[in-house]
Design brief:
Length: 377
């Protein structure tokens, strides 16, 4: 394959590649990734209120995917402004929240039609907040902005890019005997290499990963927090993308992506366990703090997002503002919640839930693994 980083890669090979993808090592890693993802899918289906997981995972994915592109905000800021992205003063926070909206709306689109290049354009348009169309100008720079050293020049020409996207679209629906996880990983490289839009390609491609898995029935909810793994291995992510281009190093790339799916699935499983344990602790605290009792929906309202608003409790529990305020204030006095101000709005932070979402899980992390209970107070 002829490739020069300083020239547009219009000869980008079509999918599927000529190289064998499912090598012995890849098949072994695929089995582990599929098992972890299947366990996550089973656990998510057992959740009484999936919004508890979906809302939070989407925000964390938005933060990490944006950070990969050097758009840096904090999970705390995202949770604080999740209900009204335009009130966030930080542009990075607003852009990350648009990513969350793109993921949510993309998920809604997949329930109605197959993933296509049009889906990608719709997702990118939401992220960038204006209509994104296929690049029709040369000059796209991918490389080190400090040194000016170019790492890669994507294909140019609307007809060339459209043809490559058409092949990408065909492949994600007709990938033969390949495992869907292998096909998704190969398609992700191809989308990054095509680089079809002027901006927002990386984030759009990572949304497509989740939507492809949803379309193929491996996920019923958009809860694969894959960008967490990528941001923790950012240099390797870009090195391996380039290695496929320069050396056709498909095996290394596929092993990386499959391990990311496995690790991310296990992290989310541990998070589900942690949420369940915290809910039991908060339920017990509610019995002690709310002498008059509380609506059964209050617990779910406290875990739909770490920042709980008075109006959320009013709507979810169908109670008056004084009642909702009284319940939340009593839990804050008990130490279950933290009462904070955000402008003119009063927010109640479920600090244990927020801490759970922000931490690592695993035997080497110093944080709860599956089966260990997080501490509420």
């Amino acid at each position: 394959m002829s490739w020069d980083p300083d020239r547009p890669f219009n000869d980008l090979p079509l999918l599927p590649p000529a190289h064998e993808l499912e090598t012995r090592a890849v098949l072994k890693r695929t089995i582990a990734a599929r098992a972890a993802l299947a366990s996550l899918e089973q656990a998510s289906r057992s959740l009484p209120n999936p919004a508890v997981l979906v809302n939070s995972i989407q925000l964390l994915e938005a933060q990490a995917s944006s950070e990969i592109e050097n758009i840096v905000t904090t999970s705390d800021e995202l949770f604080r402004f999740a209900h009204d992205e335009e009130t966030a003063s930080d542009p990075a926070t607003r852009e990350a929240l648009r990513y969350r909206r793109a993921l949510f709306e993309g998920f809604a689109l997949v329930s109605r039609r197959a993933v296509t290049a049009r889906t990608a354009a719709d997702v990118c348009s939401i992220i960038k907040q204006h209509d994104m169309t296929i690049r029709d100008r040369p000059g796209t720079f991918i490389g080190d902005p400090v040194t000016g050293q170019r790492a890669y020049t994507p294909p140019v020409g609307r007809s060339t890019i459209t043809g490559l996207l058409s092949n990408w679209e065909d492949f994600i629906h007709q990938y033969g005997d390949l495992d869907p996880l292998v096909a998704m990983s190969a398609a992700h490289y191809q989308f990054e290499a095509i680089h079809p839009f002027e901006d927002g390609n990386g984030r759009t491609g990572r949304v497509m990963n989740v939507l492809i898995l949803v379309e193929h029935g491996l996920l019923s909810l958009p809860i694969l927090y894959l960008s967490r793994y990528i941001i923790r291995n950012k240099s390797e992510y870009y090195r391996l993308l380039l290695a496929v281009t320069a050396e056709e190093a498909w095996e290394e790339w596929l092993l990386f992506m499959l391990e990311g799916i496995r690790e991310t699935s296990l992290w989310t499983l541990a998070t589900i366990d942690g949420i369940s344990a915290l809910q039991e602790q908060v339920r017990a605290a509610m019995r002690g703090a709310l002498s008059g009792g509380a609506n059964a929906d209050l617990l779910e309202a406290l875990f739909e997002e770490p920042y709980c608003r008075i109006r959320t409790v009013m709507e979810r529990c169908r109670v008056s503002r004084p009642t909702a305020t009284s319940w939340l204030s009593a839990l804050a006095d008990r130490g279950v919640l933290i009462d904070v101000r955000a402008g003119r709005e009063r927010l109640f932070v479920n600090r244990a839930f927020l801490r759970l979402l922000q931490q690592d899980h695993g035997p080497d992390s110093g944080s709860p693994t599956r089966g260990e209970e997080p501490v509420l107070f």
